[in-house]
Write a structure and sequence with these properties.
By secondary structure, the chain is mainly alpha-helical. It has a domain of 82 residues: Winged helix-like DNA-binding domain superfamily/Winged helix DNA-binding domain (Arc Repressor Mutant, subunit A, Orthogonal Bundle). It has seven helices and two strands. It has a two-stranded antiparallel ribbon. A hairpin with a 7-residue loop joins strand 1 and strand 2. Helix 4 packs across helix 5. The radius of gyration is 18 Å and the shape is globular. The two termini are 30 Å apart. The mean pLDDT is 90.
């Protein structure tokens, strides 16, 4: 880290900001080549793993407002990557699911993400990588739990 000022490297929050910016910079063009934005990838990932019970739950899991999710879902649905249907238990709710094409797109985006992770952390052994992920997840959970009521995360 000799290339970076100690004013950054001695402050973990700034290291995280710089690292996050680096991940975004490395992902933006390859995701665009797949026809995805970062927000679209986020939504596909949550749909593919968490299977939210409604469009509203999806927004909450993604840390987005419902109004932010709707246009993204509109585009994903238009492209055949997701399908919406009314909930069988509550007709007021829309349930969103990945289509087979959406699952395929998610797999491609995940491969891209793994390649970025490998480029940044490939020299860490599996245990160190898992510890890093656990530490980042813990920080993310604490950030979410300490946000003011009503704030989107």
């Amino acid at each position: 880290m000799d290339d970076f000022p100690r004013g950054i490297t001695t402050r973990p929050a700034l290291v995280l900001v710089k690292l996050g910016n680096e991940v975004l910079a490395r992902a933006e063009d390859p995701l665009a080549a797949l026809g995805l934005s970062g927000r679209q990838y986020l939504i596909l990932a949550v749909l593919g793993t968490d299977e939210p019970s409604s469009q509203l739950d999806l927004a909450g899991l993604c840390g987005l407002l419902p109004a932010q999710v709707v246009p993204v879902l509109d585009e994903l649905e238009r492209r055949g990557l997701v399908a919406r249907q009314r909930s069988e238990t509550d007709r007021r709710r829309s349930v969103v699911r990945l289509t087979p094409a959406g699952e395929e797109m998610l797999a491609k985006a995940d491969e891209l993400a793994r390649s970025i992770e490998h480029a940044l952390f490939g020299d860490l052994d599996a245990g160190a990588r898992e510890q890093l992920n656990a530490t980042l997840r813990a920080g993310l959970a604490r950030a979410r739990d300490s946000r003011p009521t009503g704030a989107a995360f």
